[in-house]
Design brief:
The protein is 18% helix and 23% strand. With 628 residues, it is α+β, with helices and mostly antiparallel strands. The strands form eight sheets. Strands 13, 14, 15, 16, 17, 18 and 19 form a seven-stranded mixed beta sheet that branches. Keywords: Chromatin regulator, Metal-binding, Nucleus, Repeat, Transcription, Transcription regulation, Zinc, Zinc-finger.
Length: 628
């Protein structure tokens, strides 16, 4: 009778479900009784709440795992020969222990596989795979540790395409692709002050179609934009793309119109078209009057946007890549484009590193872990090394403040979460521990280590966690718990069977920024499974603020779900506002040119009306003023 009553109430509730702005509803919130309240954040780093005792326990190389069905299943990596728990292996086929091995196999085939095994074991591969006795590893992270061990060999067998070997311009033009605009990337240089740079904006650039012995310039217009890159066409070529060329707008050779006049640099029409007009000055006045160009301090703003507050030798707390449940101390080794190469403090040869953006939610100030109750690996180094210093807390991304005093997340609540170890999947997950300041420890149902060493930390406002039913509503494949046999997976059934409740929808972050991304846009994306790599990528799906990123040339199983706004994902590391004289105020709109005859006739403006080869090789004054 009680079950019948529950079903009746459930049916009645289903009829009243209403979707909100997140596309979600609260229909799953009361499928069972409430579970225990959140635990204290004062728990020590080694104390982890035990999982239910009825789960079978499996041991592999000293590491303990639990699975609902009690079947471990072993697999052998076809790339490096490593043997381990099958669920620890990468992709649906479970042929490889890691994404790096999978990609190496795809790129280098059998030869690379033999080389990798020789590097690891010192022996040729045999028919009977040899179990590698490595240090205990978290199941899903065994792959990454193995990758670290073979990094030197992989660098030889899988060389990345160099910047000189890939041309964004050719790639965009030959396939008629559309690149994501700079304004989509608030965390990138110039992302917040790019302004209205668009097609038809005029700039002054070096003239490469000239035989003069000195560097000369000419005016060009933007034909097409692809991120920072612009396809330029010299003035006077009209619809002729013969000398079109790609150039980085933020480069040192691009200037606003008028820069040559102010700097005493010569303007010389390209040799190919110098015969088209007898009065180039009048031509320019007609073409440029009322046109748009770059702000006069554009280069200064580019330089300022590439100044980063993080500096080498700063100490931070960062996630332990081998045990996601805890953090470690690391030192900033280098800063490139806002990306930090962090070296774990205990790494003697400084090769144990981790890449992330300076606004990443994975890094924090020293003392953060203790302040919120997060597990932390104490360093064997008792005192700071010379020159190392703690990063000021105000430099880190700020998370949104939350009120945990009222209705809040509780241990045991169910939700959907992006698996940080397989970013192509959104999985059934459980809140395992509630920390301070809105942080949560989450585990993926069905494949958790018994000691909780593969739990991971997300903030309550993180765009990587979702209410129950999010995938179903948005037609995304939800990854069910490993060993769960009642397929297709139904949340109502699962909640009833496990005696769990769903986390209330209203507790999740529903903000959707106007990010500007569109399906099909091209961009450069960090491979978050191997964050040292930046790859050519495409946006293939957009769900609210969530982007599905496909790495061009690779299978869909390597796709990754990411947030559309890194800045909004991690707050913003805003500094105190500069003086008004230094702000980019007024430059969101392009500078409109009002060229008149007096500008070009000015004494400081050097203009060459087409030079012959004889003139260019002589010793006379090449900069001839054009009489009106």
């Amino acid at each position: 009778m009680e079950n019948t009553k529950d079903l009746t109430e459930h049916s009645s509730r289903s009829e009243r479900k209403r979707r909100d702005s997140f596309g979600m509803f609260d229909g799953y919130d009361s499928c069972s009784e409430d579970t225990s309240s959140s635990s204290s954040s004062e728990e020590s780093e080694e104390e982890v709440a035990p999982l239910p005792s009825n789960l079978p326990i499996i041991k592999n190389n000293g590491q303990v795992y639990t699975y609902p069905d009690g079947k471990s299943g072993m697999a052998t990596c076809e790339m490096c020969g490593m043997v381990g728990v099958r669920d620890a292996f990468y992709s649906k086929t479970k042929r490889f222990c890691s994404v790096s091995c999978s990609r190496s196999y795809s790129s280098n085939s059998k030869k690379a596989s033999i080389l990798a095994r020789l590097q690891v074991t010192g022996k040729p591969p045999t028919k009977k795979a040899k179990v590698l006795q490595k240090q205990p590893l978290v199941a899903k992270l065994a792959a990454y540790a193995q990758y670290q061990a073979t990094l030197q060999n992989q660098a030889k067998t899988k060389a990345a395409v160099s910047m000189e070997g890939f041309s964004w311009g050719n790639y965009i033009n030959s396939n008629s692709f559309i690149a994501a605009p700079v304004t989509c990337f608030k965390h990138a240089p110039m992302g917040t002050c790019w302004g209205d740079i668009s097609e038809n904006v005029r700039v002054e650039v070096p003239n490469t179609d000239c035989s003069l012995p000195t560097k000369v310039f000419w005016i060009a217009g933007i034909v097409k934009l692809a991120g920072y890159n612009a396809l330029l066409r010299y003035e006077g070529f009209e619809n002729d793309p013969g000398l079109d060329f790609w150039c980085n707008v933020c480069g040192s050779d691009i200037h606003p119109v008028g820069w040559c006049a102010a700097s005493g640099k010569p303007l010389v029409p390209p040799r190919t078209i110098q015969h088209k007009y007898t009065n180039w000055k009048a031509f320019l006045v007609k073409r440029l009057t009322g046109a748009k160009t770059l702000p006069p301090d554009f280069s200064q703003k580019v330089s300022e946007s590439m100044q980063y507050p993080f500096k080498p030798c700063m100490r931070v707390e960062v996630v332990d890549k081998r045990h996601l449940c805890r953090t470690r101390v690391a030192v900033v080794e280098s800063v490139i484009g806002g990306r930090l190469r962090l070296v774990y403090e205990e790494s003697e040869d400084r090769t144990d590193d981790f890449w992330c953006h300076m606004h990443s939610p994975l890094i924090h100030h020293i003392g953060w872990s203790r302040s919120i109750g997060h597990r932390f690996k104490r360093s064997d180094i008792t005192k700071k090394q010379d020159g190392h210093f703690d990063t000021p807390p105000h430099l880190f991304a700020k998370v949104k403040e939350v009120d945990q005093s009222g209705e809040w997340f509780k241990e045991g609540m169910k939700l959907e979460a992006i698996d940080p170890l397989n970013l192509s999947t959104i999985c059934v997950a459980t809140i395992r521990k509630v920390l301070a300041d809105g942080f949560l420890m989450i585990g993926i149902d069905g494949s958790e280590a018994a000691d909780g060493s593969d739990w991971f930390c997300y903030h309550a406002t993180s765009p990587s966690i979702f209410p129950v039913g999010f995938c179903e509503i948005n037609m995304i494949e939800l990854t069910p718990p490993r060993g769960y046999t009642k397929l297709p997976f139904k949340w109502f059934d699962y909640l009833r069977e496990t005696g769990s409740i769903a986390a209330p929808v209203k507790l999740f972050n529903k903000d959707v920024p106007n990010h500007g991304f569109r399906v099909g846009m091209k961009l450069e994306a960090v491979d978050l499974m191997e964050p040292r790599l930046i790859c050519v990528a495409t946006v293939t799906r957009i769900i609210h603020r969530l982007l599905r990123i496909h790495f061009d040339g690779w299978e869909e199983e390597y796709d990754q779900w990411v947030d559309s706004s890194r800045e909004s994902q991690s707050g913003s590391s805003k500094q105190k506002k500069k003086a008004k004289s230094q702000q980019y105020k007024g430059h969101k709109k392009m500078t409109t040119l009002q060229l008149k005859e007096e500008l070009i006739d000015g004494e400081d403006y050097n203009f060459l009306q087409g030079a012959s080869d004889q003139e260019s090789n002589g010793s006379a004054n090449f900069y001839i003023k054009q009489e009106p």
